[in-house]
Structure formats: C-alpha cells, structure tokens
Amino acid sequence: MLIHSIIMTENSIPSDKMDASAKHVFWASYFGWLLDGYDTTIYAFVLVASLTFLLPNSGISKSLLASYGLDYFAIFLVGWGTAFLFGPVADKIGRMRTLGIAILIYALGTFFSGLSYNVLEFGIARFVAGFGLGAEWFIGGTGVSEVFPEKTRAIWAGRFHSAWYAGFIVAAVTTPLLLEYAFPESYGWRAIFFIGIIPAAILAYIRLRAKEPEVWKKKKEIQGNKMNITNSFKLLFSKNYRKTTILLVLVMVPVITGLYGGTLDAPTAIKNLVASSLGATVNATWWVVLGGSIISIFTLVFCLVMPYLVKRFGRKYTLGVYMIFMIVGLLAAFGFAYNQHNLYLFLPLLMLLGIGGADFSVFSLWVPEIYPTEARAGGFAVITALGRYAGAGLVFVIAALAAVTTLGTALAYGSIAFVIGIVLLVFVKEDRNKQLDRTISKMELEPES
C-alpha cells in the first residue's frame, strides 16, 4: 500500500510537489556524501607514502608507520564523530547553509593535509577534514527527506545513500592510476589531497543553487527563535523520544563496526592474502581495488534495492536482514576464507559484506521520519555520531584481538556486535505507515518560559 501524500492544511505544506530546488538539494547532498567515501578511500592509498615522509620530519622512526597510520585514522574518526554538533546547528540555521559550512571545513582540512610538513600538522588537518565530512550524511539525508514527496521519498533516500560507495569506487580506480603514472612518489600523496578539493568546489557551486527545504523554511518563519540548538537537543531525550534515540544509537554501533572493522580492513586483508598466496613481490594494489569494488558495487546496488524491501517488509526487518548478511560475511570471509589463506574464495565472499553494508541506507530513510523538523538533523546527527564513537572503540578492541590471534578471527568476532544489534532492534518501535512530519504551526517540545 503506497503512503498517501500529505494534504494541504493550515498546519502543513504540500509534500507532493518537486521542483528544480529539490534536485539541487539532492545533488548537493549526494556529492557531499560521495566526498566522504572518496576522502576515506584516498587516505588508505596515500597513508604509507605520506607517513614515510612525515615521520622522519618529526623525528619519529618509520618503523612506527603502522601504529601512526591507525592513530591518524582514529583522529579522522574523532573529527567525523564530533561533527554531530552540526546537526542542531542545521535545525537552527538551515540544512543547506550548514552543509556549505561543512564543505568549507572539509576543503580546508584536505588542503592542509597536502601541505603538512610534520605529524602534528597532519593530525590537525585530518581532524578538520573529518569534522567537515562527518556532517555530510545526516545533513544530506535530512535535506533529501524533506524535499521529496512521500511516494518517492524512500527511493531518493536509497539513491542518496549509494553516493558513499560511488565515492569509494571513483577514488579506488583513479588514485592508484594517478600515483602510478601521473605523479612522482615523493610528492604524489600531496597532489592526491589537492585533487580532493576539486569535487568540494563543484559541490560548493551546487550548494549555492540549492534552496532550503520548504518545510524547514516555513517552520522557521513561524517559530523563529524557538528553533534553536538547545531545543533540538532537548527533544531527542524527551519522554517521547528518549527510548528510540538510545536504542538506535546502540543499533548503530555494530553497523559502524561492520564498516570500520570489516569493510575498511578488507584492503589490509587482501594485501596479506596476495603476499601469502602469490608472493610478497606481487603488487597488491589492483587486487585491493578489485576487492574494494566488489564490496562497494554490491552495497551501492542494495542501497537502491532498499526502498522496495522496506515497502514490502518494513524498516526493522530490512535492517535486520542486512545485518544478518554482515554476520555471515564476517564469519565466512574473515573467519573462514582469510584464515584458510584462500584469496580466490575470500574475494567473492566480499559480496556478502557488500550486501550487508547497505544497512546504513535504512537509517537514511528511517531516522528523518522519527523526529519533527525542529530536531530532525539533530536526531540524525546524535544517532550517527555517538554510534561512530562507540564503533571506533570496538575497532580498537578488534585491533587488540588481532595482535593475539589472526586478523580474520578478530574481525569474525565483530559478528557478535551484530547479533546484539539485532536483539536491540526488536525493541525499537516502528510505524510502517509513518510519514515525514511536515507540521509548521506548532513545536513538539515548547521551550521553558
């Protein structure tokens, strides 16, 4: 049964009208989220070259490269998580305006990553880049949800979320070529960071053409200063929303862990398998590209499939099914194929992780419809950011396990987090006929006098 479009009343605005502005909001949001996948991927390819230069300049032995590589990924993730501050800001000043600020911060962080001379400068630059990028998901997802009609909102949410994996594929294909053929090894890593600013500039142009979603703009006109950062936070943990907010934060933890631990550790696993199966002298770059592309292509496809599954089975069941794919993928790919040193079995099993990775896309559809306009971006931000912090912590646990066992076994243990997540998901309330709240004449949580 299709969700009916909202009828125009004194308390709502039309939701079934799409104009050029909606397309601009979509593309601004899409390319913002694509940048996140792009930047995360290029960092993986330039990590060794950049730290090989930066560590000696800082008086640090290159033998610590692996440790510092993990530290700088953690710094990036801290910036990524801290970006939750942009959520309530977007509820106060607007989605597209906040997106523009985040793009600028990302561009500055990426530019100074390429200019860095020592590890301190590089660490600060990576935090700033992560801080800017971290806002792209929840601001973009909020904006897209607000500008499309109910009957197509789920489809556009799936298309929006596929952007991260498109960014991964673009970076995975182009970065090795640029490093191999276009730039000398000594400064190629700097050039890659500078090139990363180009899509940010394109995105900034698109953002300038995008108007604020009409539902936010109309409500801001009526409610004025009542739509502020404080009230956005308060509503998330008020009586009506506290349980859902906390449960979805906890469910987000294994989802994030699957990305950090499973998907982003796949390149390291592939390099190890290439060395053990084909010899240490074999260049593993294109094997890594192949493995990463398998994951990303399947995730991208199942982000696009998500709206149809949600329509048939609901949000909770679709998310649960994707999480089951992650459990099976972690156990089969890492727990079995990796530990058997079987590269040719490991690669096709990455399809399971790709399908399971589309679990993120369910949040892009589901979370915006849980909260009213005055706390929608804030709610999305808190759920994703707090989940990121906890998920990052679990990745360090996995890293510690890998030190005493194998990488494959440690990552296979990550499946336990998904089992717990599925159990918690049972307690999350879902209304399968839920429509995005578009009321403008009242606030759900009135501020104290």
Describe what is shown at a glance.
This protein has helices spanning 20-57, 65-82, 86-93, 95-115, 119-133, 136-147, 150-161, 163-182, 188-195, 197-209, 214-223, 229-236, 242-263, 266-278, 285-313, 315-338, 343-356, 359-370, 376-404, 407-412, 415-425. With 449 residues, it is mainly alpha-helical. The model is unreliable at 1-16 (pLDDT under 50).
Question: What order do the helices and strands come in, and which of them pair?
Answer:
Elements: H1 20-57, H2 65-82, H3 86-93, H4 95-115, H5 119-133, H6 136-147, H7 150-161, H8 163-182, H9 188-195, H10 197-209, H11 214-223, H12 229-236, H13 242-263, H14 266-278, H15 285-313, H16 315-338, H17 343-356, H18 359-370, H19 376-404, H20 407-412, H21 415-425
Number of strands: 0
**Any idea of the CATH topology of the largest domain?**
Growth Hormone, Chain: A
Number of domains: 2
Sketch the major β-sheet: none
The CATH first-level class of the largest domain comes to Mainly Alpha
Number of helices, counting only DSSP H or I runs of 4 residues or more: 21
The computed structural class is mainly alpha
Describe this entry's structure for a reader.
- By secondary structure, this protein is mainly α.
- It has two domains: 20-213 and 221-229, Growth Hormone, Chain: A, CATH 1.20.1250.20; 242-430, MFS general substrate transporter like domains (Growth Hormone, Chain: A), CATH 1.20.1250.
- It is 76% helix and 0% strand.
- It contains 21 helices and no strands.
- Helix 13 (242-263) packs across helix 19 and helix 14 crosses helix 15.
- Mean pLDDT is 85; it is low at 1-16.
